[in-house]
Amino acid sequence: MTRTILLTLGLAALILAATTVVIPPTAKLEQIAYKVEETTLKIQGAGVATLARPYVTPGEGYVYAGMKIEFLGAYPSIQVGADGQISKTFDQNGFVSAVYVGPDASKVTLVNTAKDQVEVKVRITYTYVKASYIPLNGDTTLEVNVPDGKLAQGFNAMARLTIEPYASYVVKSVERPDGTPATVYRVEPKVVEINTPGKYKIVIGQGPAMPAAMLVKSLSKQTASVAPNGEFAVSGAEVGVPQGWKLLGYVVFAYTADANLIGKEVTGDMAISGGLVDTVTDVNQNIIVRSVSYLIPPVWNFNIRYKIAIVYGEGFKITSTLPSTVNVIYIPIVYKEAQVKWLPDRALVNITDVDVADGQWTAIVMQLPELARIVAIRTPGNAMISNATDVKLVWGGGLRAASISPDGRQAYLVVQMGDTKEVGTYTFIINWRPMRIPVVDTKGRPVSQLSAVSDKFEAAASTGYVEVKVYKPEPFALDISYKGVKAVHVEVNSLIASPQPVTLGIYTVKIVVVGALNQPIAEASVAIEGFPASGKTDSSGAVRFPDVLAGTYKVNVDVGGRVKVSDTIDVNGDVEKVIKTPIVAVVGGVPITTLDALATVGGLSAAGLYFAFARRREPVAEVEQI
């Protein structure tokens, strides 16, 4: 008869729930250092001039980001090429006015196609960037110093902060240094650009996400006036926003002029306020008028004041403390998400007649994360736009504005201007880099034997990282497994090129199996349930598993097929666990338990027990412990 001893000591349920890691939305802060040089290149007929990237860097941590070459004149015989990314801007006559060269290009070549020598005057701006990423979790206040340290001689500084469109965060306000004009920075809901050195404070808070591909439309311009020492306000309710569109904000132009005798200069000012105000220009100019001779003395002082601002939000207000009337032109700007289909190498944007109705102009605007680069735009009429930044194209008797930013992350294209329009499908050709997420252990070492599955994109794993082939600018989820066991659930809310590593707890587990008298039990089979780790104990009763994922596991011990013991183990670091069995001896490979030993009271010797169990190798003990 087989006797089974079952000891149930409240064994805890196996805990293998994967950890959740959140890669939060981020704000990218770029400290930008740039150096401007003007030079004249003498290029012989049919000759070539070469411009190379500079060797001097502005300071530690800065990375070369490319150069801009501006032509200080018209040079129709000059052609420009580069051994890397290049984008061009053309003037109203169709001549190249500027060239943007990416950081992957080591040199730029200017070719003179004429027979005679040409002297080409150029202004070259070399740009370097030092980038950092600020995780966004609730309201965030950033103090930004421009520059952030001492720069090499000849370099100037600026800074740019960017929040990805799909993040539910916006810029709330920018506080500039005392005494500086409002024009020292530019701002919009997702971007701040600072162009003057100083100490700034940027407040970021929760706000609406914006489409990565959208239609932006200008409604008709409106006029108003502000009485002396008065104010004028627009709440947004009076704006006829087309159905399906949202109010983005307004372009506001406030201006006035007056004439006064010298010594009686105008006092007061006018201010434009609203949700988020981007002051484009602020001019206060005095012009004293006199005749050529002394016929009319310089007594009259003409004062001209005007401000142009983009105000984001539902409304704005103009307040004047001037003695003259302020005239106002304001233009409501609306937007809506574009009808877009995202594919691995392109985005298809469909434009209908309804989309281009009721506006002065309508444009497609695309803003993508840093993993993407817009290569070209194909119109419904099969016109191809590529390597072009801020260009004006002849279109229906007028001009069509189009641009792909030099870094390829942004693009705009006007699809309607007045009565001229082009509806249909626009194709944006896009190169996406896979998002590579490093996976390391607690000692920073790359982890192997990984696998991964994403809810939206194709994912693959290699030693030390998981690569996700994103092609749509939106958050996604990712499950990473180690040795076939789900290790971590990752929620990715920011498509950045250098995300923080995901750290897995991988530790060494040592199991020691002993008997009832604490003697080591060799050749015991040990397995960790729920994780691919199993082996046999050595002569010291120990077995070592070097790479076990953190978690709470059930450890199963089997000795000779007759004694089975289970216990739990918490793995949150290197750990050693002693598991005790009711074995008093192992004779000829047969474990003899304390229960078997009781039989000696009935007259059987140890040798008798051995021969008895050699004939019947049946289980005699199953023990669960905690």
What is this structure, in a nutshell?
By secondary structure, the protein is an all-beta fold.
Write the layout of secondary structure elements.
Layout: E1 5-7, E2 19-23, E3 26-43, E4 48-52, E5 63-71, E6 78-82, E7 86-90, E8 96-101, E9 107-112, E10 118-135, E11 140-146, E12 156-163, E13 169-175, E14 185-188, E15 191-194, E16 198-206, E17 213-218, E18 222-226, E19 231-234, E20 246-261, E21 270-289, E22 300-320, E23 326-337, E24 339-343, E25 346-351, E26 361-367, E27 372-378, E28 384-386, E29 391-395, E30 398-404, E31 410-417, E32 420-421, E33 424-432, E34 435-441, E35 450-454, E36 458-462, E37 465-469, E38 476-482, E39 485-492, E40 502-504, E41 506-514, E42 525-529, E43 533-536, E44 542-549, E45 551-559, E46 563-571, E47 575-580, E48 583-587, E49 590-593, H1 594-597, H2 606-615, E50 621-624
Parallel strand pairs: 1-50, 2-39, 34-40, 41-47, 46-50
Antiparallel strand pairs: 3-10, 3-12, 4-9, 5-8, 5-10, 6-9, 7-8, 11-16, 12-15, 13-16, 14-15, 17-23, 17-26, 18-23, 19-22, 20-22, 20-23, 21-22, 24-25, 25-33, 26-31, 27-28, 27-33, 29-30, 30-31, 31-32, 34-37, 35-38, 36-37, 38-39, 41-44, 42-43, 42-45, 45-46, 48-49
